[in-house]
Amino acid sequence: MEFMKLEDMTIEQKIGHLIVARGFIDDEDRQYILEMVKKRCVGGYQYVGANNRKLGKEILAVADYPILICGDMESGYGEARYTNHLGISTSNDPKMANLLARATAVCAKRNGINFAWAVVADPTVKGSPGRSGRAFSDDPEVISKFVVEMIKGYQQEGMIVSLKHYPSHNTPYDTHMKKAVCYQTKEELLNKNLVPYLRAMKEADLSAIMTGHAMFKNIDDVYISSLSKKVIDIIREEGFDGLIVTDSLAMMAIAQNYGKYECLATAIMAGNDMVLPNYRLSYKESFEYLMKAYEEGIITEERLNEAVRRVLTAQERASKPASTTELTDEMREAIDSAAQKSICGIYKEGYTAKLDENTKKLFVLLCENEYQNSETDTAEIKLSSPRSRESMVQKKAEILELFPDAKVLIINEFPRFSENEQVCYYASETDETIFYTFCSPAAYQGSNCITQRIESLIDANMEKISAIIHVGNPYEISKFKDAKRIITSPSGGKTEDYILKALKGEFVPTGKLPVKID
User: Fold this and answer.
1) Nearest to residue 64, comparing CAs of 321, 323, 319, 311?
2) How confident is the model at residue 50 (pLDDT cuts 50, 70, 90)?
3) How many helices, marked H, and strands, marked E, lie in the chain?
4) Rounded to an integer, what distance in angstroms lies between the CA atom of residue 8 and that of residue 11?
5) For every residue of 409-461, which 3-state class applies, written as one string?
6) Least confident of 247-256, 298-307, 474-483
7) How far apart are CA 412 and CA 419, in angstroms?
8) Domain 343-504 maps to which CATH number in 3.90.700.10, 3.20.20.70, 3.40.50.1700, 3.30.360.10?
9) β-pairing verdict for 115-120 and 160-166
């Protein structure tokens, strides 16, 4: 493995180092990427998805330089899978967060991944789709505490890590779908949004930043933050000299406003050192456009060399090996603890998490609506989601193991009238009803709230409801103010094993949500 030197690089190599390749459009594009890697003309590669992983292994086999192999790992990687950011901070255990990051890095390094897009500094925002579980808190001090420990953990095991999504907007909009407009001034950003960034620079030797796509109108009323030199200069003026990479340029905040090609050069000239191109483009298209932008003087020689210098520094830094190739007992314990410590119990006076053993119970489980993939596709999508009907059938079996005499109904998150009628009927025939609800945060959903139909169904049966289990967006529990007990966690997975044990009285939730709930 040979480190590249700026002074020895060709223009093609320099331009290629500005790009994080992300999969391929077809086999021709795949072959093109591999040939460019052999020529040392690719700066990084996004290691996501089955096809991408296959190509990633091919890239690692032919690369003779430390190319950046990148991935989103906000909830861990491989056998080091754990709760989301909000679940981690619910534990109030920064040492555990450090161990989780180390465990992720150890597992990722085994597969050649050396750059984690993994630590989110954004504040939680009520009503913001896709962000409630991805952020640590609504308090910059709490965010900073966990950000610092996770960055230290990753970097201790030889990975560079990006803090995202600079400069962390606080609006309830999904930039995958539209432009988010903010009105904070530079001073307000420095005193709030950027506190975690400044702390990470000072206390954790922050190696990288990923820019987001919100517009800060009082700083730049033309360009969103990922394309704004004025916004990016703020962190540079504070002394940050690490790598800056854009978030996906496929998002509608970019694509609908700044051109799928033009935004590449605009991003580099704004101060990003690498771009994550629109995945609808081939690598060849991105490379050829940036080469053209350089030849036409849109990208200057000075900016090109400055960006490539930072990419090379990141590549060298990311080549450090992890301290171990296997998870330690301490790391494994942290992964299990994360599941337990993310669970919170909220009770009316006189109640605990444990249900009465002597009552007739009805459990109502929500599942995602299954639907056709397109007008011409007659087969239902087989959802891999933990909220698919198939997954809820498994959850039903787990409940019946603990409560064998219970009645368990599975209904859609957008229930039909017949499902509502069935729930109301069985609720009238039992002593207590337990609702198992969820809000799955994801891009392009527009909302991660309880559906109004479910909200109405719960309200109609509140006198019979003894417990509401809620997994996901914590702000939604404010809709259940009259519930006798709420057991909640920001994420699912292993946490849900402990939620059921809490209802049985075999586990006591200790978590405390680090966000303000009405």
Assistant:
1) 319
2) low
3) 18, 18
4) 10
5) EEEECCCCHHHHHHHHHHHHHCCEEEEEEEECCCCCCCCCCCCHHHHHHHHHC
6) 247-256
7) 8
8) 3.40.50.1700
9) parallel
> How far is the CA of 202 from the CAs of 104, 195, 196, 198, 463, in angstroms?
23, 11, 10, 6, 53
8 Å CB contact between 20 and 274: yes
Rounded Cα gap, residues 503 and 501, in angstroms = 5
Using DSSP's 3-state secondary structure scheme, residue 16 falls into: helix
Which numeric CATH code is attached to 6-249+268-333? 3.20.20.300
Those residues with Cβ within 8 angstroms of residue 418's Cβ, 6 or more apart along the chain or in another chain:
none
Residue (of 322, 416, 318, 427) closest to 364 by Cα position: 427
Tokens (6 digits) for 76: 């861990």
- Residue 112 gets the label, from left (phi > 0), alpha (psi -120 to 50) or beta, of left
Cβ proximity of 90 and 342 under 8 Å: yes
Task: Compute CA distances 55 → 45, 49, 274, 296, 379, whole Å.
Answer: 9, 10, 20, 32, 29
- Express each pLDDT in 471-504 by its tens digit: 999 999 999 999 999 999 998 888 999 999 999 9
Taking the complete model, does pTM exceed 0.85, yes or no?
Answer: yes
Amino acid identity, residue 400? L
Query: Please, where are the H alpha helices in 245-325?
Result: 252-255, 262-270, 283-295, 301-317
More confident residue, 257 or 20: 20
CA distances from 339 to 87, 204, 359, 391 (A): 8, 26, 29, 19
Q: Which residues contact 92 (CB under 8 A, 6 or more apart)?
A: 341, 511, 512, 514
Residue carrying the six token digits 């989601």: 385
Copy the structure tokens of residue 412. Answer: 């859609």
Domain residue ranges of the chain, discontinuous segments joined by +:
6-249+268-333, 343-504
The 10 Å Cβ neighbour count of residue 174 is 23
Question: How far apart are alpha carbons 73 and 46 in whole angstroms?
Answer: 12
The residues, any chain, with a CB within 8 Å of residue 446's CB and separated by 6 or more, are: 129, 174, 177
SS3 call for 13: helix
Whole-number Cα distances in Å, 279 to 93, 175, 248, 255: 37, 16, 8, 11
Smallest CA-to-CA distance from 24 within 293, 280, 323, 308 is with 280
Among candidates 362, 481, 477, 497, which has minimal Cα distance to 430?
Answer: 362
Rounded Cα–Cα distance for residues 267 and 168 (Å): 17
Phi-psi region of 248 (alpha: psi -120 to 50; beta: other; left: phi over 0): beta
- Token digits for 93? 């255990």
One-letter-per-residue 3-state SS of 369-406: CCCECCCCCCCECCCCCCCCHHHHHHHHHHHHHHCCCC
